[in-house]
Structure formats: C-alpha cells, structure tokens
# Entry
Amino acid sequence: MRLKTVGLLTSGGDAPGMNAAIRSFTRYAVTQGIRVFGIKRGYVGLRTADMYEMNLRTVSDILHRGGTILYSSRDPEFQTEEGIQNALKTYNESNLDALVIIGGNGSLKGVKALKDKGVKCIFIPATIDNDVSYTDYSIGFDTAMNTALEMIDKIRDTTRSHEKCSVVEVMGRKCGDLALNIGIGVGATSILVPEITYDFEKDIISRIKYTQNIGKRHFIIVIAEGCEKSLEISKKIEEKTGITTRCTILGHVQRGGSPTLRDRVIASGMGYYAAQLLIDKNFNRAIAIACDKIIDYDVDSTLTVKKKFNLKLYKEALNISI
# Structure
C-alpha cells in the first residue's frame, strides 16, 4: 500500500538544526506525493490532535533558525498507558500512515512505545548533549559546542586580564561530550565529565599549581553539569590556591542560536533520509551517523546500546592542557 499521510513532530529539548530536518523531510516527502502534518509541541500535540498540514512554503525561511517551528515539550502524560492510547486515537483518526519523530533519548523511548502499539515510526536524533547512545552524532551538538566556545573565549579575556581562574559549567547531565570537546577547544586546565570520577586535589588543584609553576597566570576549568557542584568547586579552588575564582553557568544559551553549517547539512541529510526510508517502506528505523555517514538501525536495537566515552581524546586533552 502506498504511503499517503505522515505526521512530523519534535520532542524534548530543542536543538539547533531541528528546523533544517523539518524542512528537508517536508520538501522531499511532499514532492513525492506524501501529505505531511506538522504536530505541535511533541507528544502533547499527538495526544491532543494539535496539527496542521505543511507544504513547500510553510518550511520556507527556517533553515537558519534555531529551536523548532513545531515547538517542543516533555510530556509526562505520554509516559502513561492512557496518554499513549490518546496518541493512538489521534494517529488513527487523522489517518496517519507513519510518524517521524525528532528528539533525544526520551523521545526515542516514545518511539518504542508507539512502535509496540503498531505505529510505523522513523526517529531522527537531535540533542545538544550528544547523548543518544547508538549514534556518533546528534543534531545540535556542533552548534552548542560553538556557542559555548564563543562564550568562554569572551570569559577568557577577563580571566586573563585579571589573572583569575574561571570555572565554566556547560550542559551534559549524563554525557561529557560537550565538556570534553569544549575543554579542548578553549585549552582548559581541567575538564570534569560525568563518565570519569575526579579527584579534586589531583585533577584540579595539582594541575593548576603545576601550570602556575611553569608560568601560567590564568586558568579555565570546564565542568559538565552532570558533575554538579560547580559553585562549590569554584569556592574551594580560591580557598586552596588564593587565586580569584569565578563560576559561570552557561545554561540554556547553549541550546539557542542559528545552527552551524555542519548542523544544517547533517540535519538536512537526516530529514531527506527519513523521507526516503518511508518511501521505501522501511519502518521503525532510527537514523544515525556512523563514520560520518548517515545510516539507520532497527529501533529496538538502539535501546540496549551504551554510550561510549572517548577516553583516548580525554587523555590527550589532559596531556596538552598544561
């Protein structure tokens, strides 16, 4: 049977590049004779039938915009059987043939729940933390890194001018990819990530004192939010070293802004790939990046994959940040 109507939604935390994926999927699907309905506010909109038909022009002028034109949310009700049943009711009554869902780990669990009820799904990973375990890369990661890099470069100017120490907390509750890459990019003296247990004296104080003894006069410490206690660490550094230390929590500024070239290209490719999977009747697939190529996996197989931390890169960072 030919695919006629597809629902498209974004769920969870917004990520720069989501709009690029929305645009490419919609344009390719529509030109292939598929009707595309944009579902607002993620799984909330799926439960409440809040949707509208999209066309080539409704996705114009969005490629450069951060966030998502479909809006997003986290929906506790969708985690209940009643919430899932409401979503299924909308799906069936709207005569949808499949769903394309763009989001992070929570959204992927929603895909599994819907798939198990017979809904045909395609998942596109988008989260700035880059913590979707089965893929090397998620939409939004590059933009978030570059946003944080720009912010810390500005912080560095003051840090250097006053010979201070700056503790900067970046996002990443369970995944240290952001902190690791940003730390390398800004030449951080120490990088703390949730995957590795740190020793305050050895991994922070000793490194500051060592570099201080060989002429360094300002210091940047990058901490993933999953490590917590950034303010406390900042105070302890000042107490232990006598160096004026300030803490900056970058927060949600990392989620916003115009997506980088890389995120626009990857997101566009993933959106196109999702449409092609549906056209070819390959359902219940999770799109991924592996070795810089767009591929796909069976949804069930993705939920058992554990995220691998790049320990080699982490060790390299320690050896050059002196």
